[in-house]
Amino acid sequence: MDDLIDETADYVLELASPQRLSILFKLLSKNLTPTTCAKEIDATRQEVHRNFTRLEKNGLIKKTLDGTYTLTTFGKSICTQVPSLVFLLQNRKYFEKHDFGNVPNKFNMRCGQLAISTHVKGISKVLEQWKNIYKNSNEYIYEVVSEAPLDLIEPLVKQIEKGVKFNYIFSESTVIPKGRKALLKKLGFDKLIEKGLVERKMVPDVQTVIVLNEKEACVMFPANDEGSDITEMFYSEDPMFHEWCLDYFRYCWYGSDVFKESKLKE
C-alpha cells in the first residue's frame, strides 16, 4: 500500500503544473506536436518539449505515426478526474462551510461536472436566478426543494399555464410561507395538477436543493450540520452541469414517496 501511495504522489506531482495540465487538455480535443502546442498555449518550444517528454515518460501521452502526440487511455482517464479537483479547489472557502449532505457518493465522484458554473451568493441574487430559470423554461421545470418562496409562485404558475411540465419534490419539513395555500387556490394550481401538468412527490428530508429547466440548472448544497442553505447556489448552462443536476433529480424522484399536503404547515 505504501508503494501505491508513493506512486500516486509522484503522478500528482506530474500534474502539479499549469502547463502540463494545459497540454493534457489540449490533447484531449486533438493531436498536436510540441511546436504547435507551444503556439496554442503561448509558451516557449523548449518548455513545452520538456513537458511533453515528462508526460510521455509517465505514460500520459504517446507519439503517433504521423509525429503528433495523443493521450493514452491512462491520460484520458486522468483528464476526467481533474475537473473534480478544479471544482473543489475553486470553491474551497464555500466547502469550508458546506458539504454534500446526503448526496450519494456516486454523484460526489462526478462533482467535476459542476466545475463550469457561477457561484451566486446572497438570497436576493439566488431568488432572482431561481426565478429566471422558471421564466426561461419551455419544456419543463424540475426541482427538489426545502423551501417554497412565496415570490416565486406566480412566475412558476405562469409558465405551467403555458404548458411547461412541473415536477417537484418537497421534504416533509419544507418551509411553507403563510399565504401559500390561498395563493395556489387563487391561481388555480389544483386544476393544473388535474391536467397532468404538475406532478409532486415527497421525501423525509431535503438537504441539497436543485432547480432546473431543459437548458439551465442550479444546485444549493447544505451548510455544515445546519441543513439546506438557499442563500448561495452554483448556476450554469453548461451541458455537463445540467446532466449532473438532471441525473440527481431523477435519482431523487424515483426514490421519493407519495406527496401528502397534510404534512406541510404554514
Written overview of the protein:
The chain has 266 residues and is of the alpha+beta class. The protein folds into 2 domains: 81 residues, Orthogonal Bundle (Arc Repressor Mutant, subunit A); 172 residues, Endonuclease Chain A (Endonuclease, Chain A, 2-Layer Sandwich), CATH 3.30.870. The protein is built from 12 helices and 10 strands. Helix 9 links the parallel strand 4 and strand 5. Helix 3 packs across helix 4.
CATH class of the largest domain: Alpha Beta
Number of helices: 12
Strand order of the largest sheet: 3-9-8-7-4-5-6-10
Q: Report the count of strand segments.
A: 10
Give average pLDDT, whole number: 91
Shape: elongated
How is this fold's topology laid out?
Layout: H1 2-15, H2 18-29, H3 34-40, H4 45-57, E1 61-63, E2 69-71, H5 73-90, H6 94-97, H7 105-108, E3 118-121, H8 123-135, E4 140-147, H9 153-161, E5 165-175, H10 180-186, H11 189-194, E6 198-203, E7 209-212, E8 217-220, E9 232-236, H12 239-254, E10 257-258
Quick summary of this structure?
The chain has helices spanning 2-15, 18-29, 34-40, 45-57, 73-90, 94-97, 105-108, 123-135, 153-161, 180-186, 189-194, 239-254, and strands at residues 61-63, 69-71, 118-121, 140-147, 165-175, 198-203, 209-212, 217-220, 232-236, 257-258. The chain is α+β, with helices and mostly antiparallel strands and 266 residues long.
Question: Descriptors for this entry?
Answer:
266 residues; alpha+beta; Arc Repressor Mutant, subunit A; Endonuclease, Chain A; 2 domains; eight-stranded mixed beta sheet; two-stranded antiparallel ribbon; 10 strands; 19% strand
